[in-house]
Specification:
The complex is a heterodimer. Chain A is α+β, with helices and mostly antiparallel strands. Chain A contains five helices and seven strands, in the order ββαβββββαααα. In chain A, helix 2 packs across helix 5. In chain B, strand 26 and strand 27 form a beta hairpin. The chains are: A alpha+beta, B alpha+beta.
């Protein structure tokens, strides 16, 4: 089947596809957006986190075809866009870099999407709320300490 | 896979990873992100049987599937048909017998991954089941399940007076379950055949580039230089990428089809596609004098190595050499077996044999403290190793050994206050599905100390190579050290910029066009590849200084390739005695847990730690290694276990194999990082990656014991071990 998906503000044609393809498969394999990662294909690890119509989801668990007519936002859209057309890191991304929240980095795009979504919904989360929001994203390298630190830094900066 | 540049902070500063900006944007290329025009997709057909004779393999129907380009079995292996890190006994593809659940039997390359999977499912394999050998104790005497027998290694350590007897004797039996490395980026690679078909290029996520290359070349029947390898973005490793997984398969398919071939495992395949941490059975008898001095340690340790050798022999050496822990023990008798069974193969995982032993020796130290009516920390201090003391292998510790310092600094961290009482902070957290009585939640505190050997032991010729070029004020480091997330990318930059006093340092991609850097394991790369970078940079500095002294220009190009070897070690003699290890690192952990004694649920509230680090190269990364290692230690203590029944893994998914989440992982408090420089190491730095996951597990177990008065002689601790 052939259909159109709206991803990061642009319409993309998905052609000659099988209806059973997951959103993650289509993003990575058909639309050239490899930022969403596949680590479990069961909705347990959050590495494939994307936002569909303002809802944080695991793209491995959604059929791409079920996202027709919906707004999909992936990690590739998370950037500060300068007036001159340049892109730079957002405060969340910058905090991840500076705070040592990145080691192997495989989980990182999913975390960035999830934290971005959390702080949009809840600008001043408590540590427990951050941990709860992050508990859908697995990290095997960091033990989460530096990620929590990065989030805390962003919240402090934003609420100054 | 591109080179990276940054203004380089010096040694001791928190340098930022040059690959971090790409990683936070989803732009960093991991091995499973690779793509090339015209590539085929490879899949592996694996044995659903645990132990079976392969009567026949019929690929007729599978070959007829449109889009299938190759189906290869054992008969198609061009060179050696077995591989192995220390001893080649593992078939590239099963040869007449499948010895474990998931053993590769055939490989398929097709235009689309689903086509390859469908074709693999159409391969008709007739198996004739054989008797299973899944008990490690039985394996010692059972009929062999492999021509080379069932005992990978039998090691005895006999130290001091075997007849010595202490005033106080405590005994215990302990068991450790099978843990998985569970790196997030599953195995993946891309093989591209040379145009003339006489060689191949492989991009792969690995820990040990040159040994992958050598093993792969041998199996392909090619000279090593015909196989070129580059480290492709590695999504974590933790030991699970030290062995070959899909390397040979990919190259076989690419050479046969004359097309590039990509393979990527999914999580269920990853769980059977790499080695695991050895399950262990340990029996201990500790002897001490009335005043709390250790007199003798006796132990018997059996490691289940699964179907093939991998690194079982070296893991056993660690478990036995460090069976007594970081203590002065004048007399010891240790007997260890690493055995072959039809269970999943086991090999390297962070902590490498010391984890299992530590669980045993630290439980024993607590038992001894009770028997002596002595404070457990005082008992440990009384017996703590120091520089100049001897291990039970009779090796004298000549480097830094601040055991007393790590114990004191960890014990001095103030204890945490009571938990908030919020539901998510109660034992079980989000998984607490029964109410339970809150006054039945009991707090416990436990303490544990560990020792880890750094770098390779037992006479292994351990070295790393670094080529450094300085040109136009920029230093470029070419080293085959696999960056798997640990942060060598900044360590290398920091060492180079410190030695050369240069701000621009580039770390080039790691590949086989430079000499071997050895494995990213054994807490060795900061010391070994860091040492190689330091050596090359010092040579260049000397050349530059000579030019300056002679009035010549120092603006030109300098290049030096340095091979860093650590001091030689010896093998262990028939009594398990010898200078088999290079350096040692020590850590102490204190765990605080809350246990719901009715529901058997545990919440780890806090881990305090102090660690012997030699010299910190990058403080931020040191903290990251410590917190991350502790997470894996906590996981092994309370939740992470590959459940094996009759040789089959029952929980090969992240739904059923539980990793600690941000809600499970406690706050880590670092009491101190003890900087006592290690002689012969770059800037005195010690490897820091493994220590955090060794005694953290034992500390959590001790804390649960303290809370529940249950024996907790098996990890991971399960609710039924506590509540029934």
């Amino acid at each position: 089947m052939t259909y159109s998906l709206r991803v990061n503000g642009e319409d993309h044609i998905v052609s000659d596809s099988w209806i059973g393809e997951s959103l993650l498969f289509v993003l990575r394999g058909r639309l050239g957006l490899p930022g969403s990662k596949n680590a479990c294909e069961q909705g347990e690890c959050g590495s494939c986190s994307v936002v569909v119509d303002d809802k944080l989801v695991c793209s491995c668990l959604m059929l791409a075809a079920s996202c027709i007519g919906r707004e999909i936002k992936t990690v590739e859209a998370i950037a500060n866009n300068g007036r001159d057309g340049t892109e730079s890191l957002t405060d969340i991304q910058q905090a991840f870099v500076q705070a040592g929240a990145v080691q192997c980095g495989f989980c990182t795009p999913g975390f960035v999407v999830a934290i971005n979504h959390l702080l949009n919904e809840n600008p001043r989360p408590t540590e427990l709320e951050v941990r709860e929001a992050m508990s859908g994203n697995l990290c095997r390298c960091t033990g989460y300490g530096r990620i929590l630190d990065a989030v805390a830094q962003v919240v402090t900066e934003r609420t100054r | 896979m591109s080179a990276t540049t940054i203004r380089s902070p010096r040694v001791g500063e928190s340098a930022i990873r040059p690959d971090a900006p790409a990683k936070v944007q989803g732009k960093f290329g991991f091995s499973n992100d690779m793509w090339i025009e015209g590539m085929l997709h490879g899949v592996t057909l694996r044995s659903p049987q645990v132990h079976a004779r392969i009567v026949s393999v019929d690929v007729t129907r599978a070959s007829a599937v449109p889009g299938v380009h190759a189906i290869l079995t054992h008969a198609d292996i061009p060179g050696a048909d077995v591989y192995g890190l220390e001893h080649a006994d593992q078939p590239v593809l099963a040869n007449g017998i499948a010895r474990y659940f998931g053993e590769p039997v055939a490989i398929v390359a097709a235009e689309h991954p689903e086509t390859a999977r469908r074709a693999a499912a159409l391969i008709k394999v007739i198996y004739e089941p054989l008797d299973l050998l899944v008990d490690s104790e039985e394996a010692i005497t059972a009929p062999p399940i492999h021509p080379e027998g069932n005992v990978f290694r039998h090691l005895t350590i006999s130290h001091g007076n075997p007849d010595a007897i202490g005033d106080v004797i405590v005994e215990g039996s302990y068991e450790v379950g099978m843990q998985d490395q569970a790196f997030l980026g599953c195995e993946a690679g891309l093989a591209i055949p040379d145009d003339d078909g006489a060689g191949v290029e492989l991009f792969v996520s690995t820990q040990f580039l040159h040994v992958d290359r050598d093993q792969t070349a041998k199996c392909l029947g090619l000279a090593p230089e015909r196989v070129r390898m580059t480290v492709a973005g590695v999504g974590g490793a933790f030991g699970g990428r030290e062995d070959i997984s899909l390397q040979v398969h990919l190259c076989m398919l690419a050479l046969r089809t004359k097309r590039p071939v990509k393979m990527e495992y999914r999580r269920d395949e990853s769980f059977v596609g790499h080695v695991h941490r050895h399950p262990a059975k340990l029996e201990y008898r500790h002897h001490a004098s009335r005043d709390g001095k250790l007199v003798k340690v006796e132990a018997r340790i059996v490691l289940d190595g699964g179907a093939y050798a991998s690194t079982s022999s070296a893991v056993l050496a660690n478990a036995c050499c460090f069976a007594a822990g970081p203590y002065v023990v004048p007399n010891a008798r240790i007997e260890g077996f690493a055995v072959r069974t039809n269970n999943p193969p086991c090999g390297a995982m962070r902590g490498f044999g010391n984890v299992q032993a530590c669980f045993g020796h630290e439980a024993q130290m607590d038992k001894l403290a009770v028997a002596l009516d002595m404070d457990p920390i005082e008992l440990r201090l009384k017996n703590a190793l120091a520089t100049g003391d001897r291990l039970i292998t009779n090796q004298m510790i000549t480097g830094a050994a601040p055991v007393e310092a790590v114990i004191r600094a960890c014990a001095d961290v103030p204890l945490p206050t009571d938990s908030s009482g919020e539901l998510l902070e109660l034992p079980g957290g989000a998984g607490r599905t029964a109410a339970g009585e809150r006054d039945r939640i009991v707090r416990g505190v436990g303490f544990a100390v560990s020792i880890k050997n750094l770098m390779f032991s037992e006479g292994f010729d351990d070295f790393s190579t670094a080529r450094v070029v300085v040109d136009g004020g920029v230093a470029t480091i070419h080293c085959a050290c696999a960056e798997v997330g640990q942060g060598f990318v900044t360590v290398a930059q920091q060492i180079a910029s410190a030695v050369l006093d240069i701000d621009e340092v580039v770390v080039a991609p790691a590949d086989t066009t430079v000499g071997s850097a050895g494995s990213t394991s054994a807490s060795r790369q900061t010391m070994m590849s860091g040492g190689a970078v330091e050596g090359a940079c010092k040579a260049i500095r000397h050349m530059r200084d000579s030019d300056a002294a002679a009035g010549r220009s120092t603006e030109g190009r300098y290049e030096f390739t340095y091979e860093h070897h650590h001091r030689p070690t010896t093998t262990l003699d028939e009594n398990g005695q010898g200078d088999a290890h290079v350096s040692f690192a020590f850590a102490a952990h204190r765990a605080v847990v809350d246990v719901d004694v009715d529901l058997g649920l545990v919440r780890v509230i806090e881990i305090a730690t102090a660690q012997d680090v030699g010299k910190i190269i990058n403080p931020l990364q040191a903290v990251g290694q410590i917190e991350g290692g502790i997470a894996q230690g906590v996981g092994l203590a309370v939740m992470e276990e590959l459940v094996i029944k009759d040789g089959r893994i029952l929980n090969a998914s992240f739904t059923d194999y539980l990793l600690p989440t941000a809600l499970d992982m406690p706050t880590v408090r670092i009491g101190a990082l003890i900087e006592e420089p290690e002689p012969g190491a770059p800037f005195g730095a010690k490897g820091i990656g493994e220590s955090p996951c060794i005694s953290s597990t034992a500390a959590v177990a001790a804390a649960i014991r303290a809370a529940t008065n249950k024996p907790v002689n098996r990890i991971p601790v399960r609710p039924q071990d506590l509540a029934l």
